[in-house]
User: Fold this.
Amino acid sequence: MIEPKEKPCKGNNSKTIGLGCGNPTKYRVYGLGKMCGCYSDFLLNTEAGKLILNKSILKVQKPRLEMQKVEKLDKDTKTLKASLINTRMQVHAYIRERDKGKSCISCGCDWNSNFQAGHYYKAETFETLKFNLENINGQCQKCNLFLDGNFDNYGLNLPNRIGIEKFNELTKLAEVDKHYSKVWNVESLKEVRGLLKQNKSFVNE
Assistant:
C-alpha cells in the first residue's frame, strides 16, 4: 500500500478554497486535512459542508431506515394476525354461548356441546361479514364441516332465527361486499371485541 504524501492543508476546489490551515497533512478531502480538523470545521460550519454532511448521513441512514420499515411492517403484520385470531376465537365463543340450547341452524338437530359457530356467508369469501353476529349461528359439526355449511337449509331457516328484516340487511351487505370488501385493522377488530363485551360479560379482552 502506497503511503500518501504530506501536502499543505488548503482547499483545492470552489467549496473549500481558502479554508485550510496550511499545515502539512497526509490525509485530505477537498484539500483539507482530516487530522488537523479543517475538514470537520468545513462540514460543520459552512453551508456547502453541511450539504455534504447531510447527504452522507442520509446515505448511511437509508439502509437502516429501510430495515426499520421492513421490521415495522413485519411487526404490524404479526400484530394484525394475532388480533384476527383473538377476535375470531372470541366471536365464536360468544356465538356458542349465545346459541346454547338452540337447534342447528341448518338441519334442526338438537343442540349438543360440540356445536360450532357456522357462517351463512363464508368468512373466507365475505370479509365484511366475517364477524357479523347475524351471519354466524350455532351449527352442528356435520353441517358445518361435512356439508360445507349446508347453505341452502341455512338460508331457509335463518330468517326465522334473526327476523326477515335482519336477513334482508345481511343479504344487502353481502352484495356490497362483492364490490367493496372490508379491510380489517387492529382498531376495527378491537371494536368488535368491545361489542362482544357489551353483549356478554363472559368474553375476555
